[in-house]
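Sequence, please.
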C-alpha cells in the first residue's frame, strides 16, 4: 500500500485512505465495508472500513485508491425506528448511551467510561444510532470528548472530559510553519431566546426553569451590549434540557469567534518528545511573539 493518509477530527467521524497497484492481488480482499487496520509506521492508528474505491490509469501506472471511514460508522447501519423519548430525571447519560447501543442489530459497540451524569431528555425520530449518540452531549455546558478502544471486541465507546493540561507546543521558529488568526463578531450573541417542541404560544420555552424569563443573558452583555438571537430546536420537550443546550450555545457565542489555523511540523518521530506529538483532543500551546499570539487550543 502507498499514499496512506488519515484525518482525525475531534468528536466527528474519522476517515482514512490508501492505494494499491491495480495488479496487486490484495485488491481482491479490499471489498466494500471490509475492515482495514491502519498503521503509521509502527503506530496503530485504528480500524476503518472501506467505502468508495477509484481505479485510475496515469503515466505512472494503474492504481486503485480506497476511501475509508472509522468503524464508528457501523452505527450508521442501525436506526431508532419511529419515535423514541429517552432520559429525564433518574435516567442518566450512561443509561441513554446504553439505550442507543442496545438498538444495534449486531453488538459491535459497548459502553465504557462515561464521565457525565446528566439527566437530560432526548427525542429521536427515525435517527441512525451514530447521529443519536453524537446528540447526547450537545446540551452539555462543558467540554467533552468521544474516545474508544478497538483493540478488543466488542469495541468500547467512552464519553469523557478531555484533558486540560497542555500536552504539546507549537512555537514560531521551532515547529510552526504558519499561523492565521481571524476574529469574527458576525455570530456574536449576548441574549438568547431558546424555543423547543411545539408551535406558537404552545411552544416550549425556558420560563419554568428560568424565573419566568424566556431568555438567558451572557456575562459579556456589559461589554458588547444586548445582541439577541433566537434558537429553535423542536427535538427538546424538556425545559431543563433546552436550558442546558441554550447555555452551552451562549457560552460559544458570547464573544467574537476567534479562529486559529496553524500549520506545524510534528517532530515527534525525530525527538520522541511527547511535547512534539499532536494527538486529537490534546491541548496545544501556540506561541508567536511577533504576532502577540500565546493561546491554548485543542487539536
Amino acid at each position: 500500500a502507498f499514499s496512506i493518509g488519515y484525518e482525525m477530527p475531534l468528536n466527528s467521524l474519522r476517515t482514512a485512505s490508501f492505494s494499491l497497484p491495480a495488479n496487486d492481488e490484495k485488491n481482491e480482499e479490499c471489498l466494500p465495508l471490509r475492515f482495514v487496520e491502519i498503521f503509521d509506521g509502527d503506530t496503530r492508528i485504528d480500524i476503518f472500513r472501506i467505502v468508495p474505491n477509484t481505479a485510475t490509469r496515469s503515466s505512472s501506472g494503474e492504481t486503485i485508491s480506497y476511501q475509508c471511514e472509522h468503524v464508528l460508522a457501523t452505527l450508521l447501519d442501525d436506526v431508532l425506528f419511529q419515535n423514541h423519548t429517552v432520559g429525564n430525571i433518574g435516567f442518566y447519560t450512561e443509561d441513554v448511551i446504553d439505550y442507543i447501543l442496545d438498538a444495534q442489530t449486531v453488538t459491535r459497540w459497548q459502553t465504557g467510561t462515561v464521565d457525565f451524569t446528566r439527566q437530560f431528555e432526548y427525542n429521536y425520530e427515525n435517527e441512525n444510532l451514530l447521529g443519536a449518540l453524537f446528540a447526547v452531549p450537545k446540551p452539555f455546558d462543558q467540554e467533552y470528548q468521544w474516545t474508544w478502544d478497538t483493540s478488543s471486541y466488542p469495541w468500547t465507546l467512552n464519553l469523557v472530559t478531555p484533558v486540560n493540561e497542555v500536552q504539546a507546543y507549537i512555537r514560531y521558529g521551532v515547529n510552526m510553519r504558519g499561523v492565521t488568526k481571524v476574529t469574527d463578531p458576525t455570530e456574536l450573541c449576548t441574549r438568547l431566546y431558546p424555543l423547543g417542541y411545539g408551535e406558537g404560544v404552545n411552544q416550549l420555552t425556558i420560563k419554568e426553569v428560568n424565573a419566568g424569563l424566556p431568555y438567558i443573558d451572557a456575562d459579556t452583555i456589559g461589554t458588547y451590549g444586548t445582541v439577541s438571537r433566537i434558537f429553535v430546536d423542536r427535538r427538546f420537550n424538556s425545559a431543563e434540557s433546552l436550558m442546558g443546550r441554550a447555555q452551552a450555545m451562549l457560552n460559544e457565542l458570547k464573544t467574537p469567534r476567534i479562529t486559529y489555523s496553524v500549520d506545524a511540523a510534528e517532530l515527534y518521530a525525530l525527538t520522541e518528545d511527547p511535547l512534539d506529538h499532536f494527538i486529537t483532543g490534546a491541548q496545544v500551546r501556540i506561541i508567536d511573539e511577533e504576532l502577540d499570539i500565546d493561546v491554548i487550543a485543542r487539536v
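The chain has a mean pLDDT of 93.
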